[in-house]
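retry 2 of 3: previous attempt timed out while embedding zinc ion. Reduced batch size to 1 and resubmitted. Inputs unchanged:
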Amino acid sequence: METNLPTELLEALRRDAGGSALILTGGGNLTAAAQAAAAAMECENHAQAPCGHCGHCRKVLAGIHPDVVTAADSEHKMISVEVLRTLRADAYILPNEGRRKIFIFPDCALLDQGAQNVLLKVVEEGPEHAAFLFCAKSAGVLLPTLRSRCAQWRVGGDAEAVAAEDPRTGELCRLLAGRDHLGLAAFFTALETARCSREDLQTILEQTWQRVAQALLLASGCAAEPAGEEVQALSQGLSRPALSAAADLLREQARQLRFNLNVGHTAGAMRWTRSSPPASS
Ligand SMILES: [Zn+2]
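retry 2 succeeded.
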């Protein structure tokens, strides 16, 4: 059947070589991509997986396969740690009828830091039958520690536009690293004046959050990947508590933007919060 999965990923899945943790990112229909990937993992017809007509494919695509679980929390806006602990325990139980037990996370922006930490270990060293499919418009919403355990794939749509780095991210990183409070105030005032869109501001905050989180790892001596210039400047310019506070603030503001707060509100919060207290030991 036709899918919106990248050809290389599809071929890897058919050879059972797609890995057990994937991040699907970009502007395409990520939920459809995750479902297609899950169907490909369970499909009986390896060479054409997902064939779309075998029993497994049909159940996965209808959302009723007993071994394909979509993470959801009907009682909270964000997916709670309790829900994820249950899901994590379930990952260790053998699949019912499929070859694999697959967990789909349709929107990783609903996983906060604590939630992602619950998943770290099972994603890294869980049982072989378990697979995790993380959907994220921007991979920046995932902790670097979790991202480093996953293979990342871009899915169709306006992926190029989403992938493009907003030049204002670099500027915000430099202002934070320099603890330039006046500069930060001016930066957010300028965004507001320029009528920066909610989506753009969200991207800037998420990309900056990603840098700050990497800087925090670097400062803690456990960076998984070589750090860029901005990350190094942040880790040198800010103390660990300051990096941690800045990461929390950026992430929270990016999350609130998702729930319809307007740009002016976020700009105000960023401007008036001491996001970068002086470095201290
Ligand atoms: Zn099939």
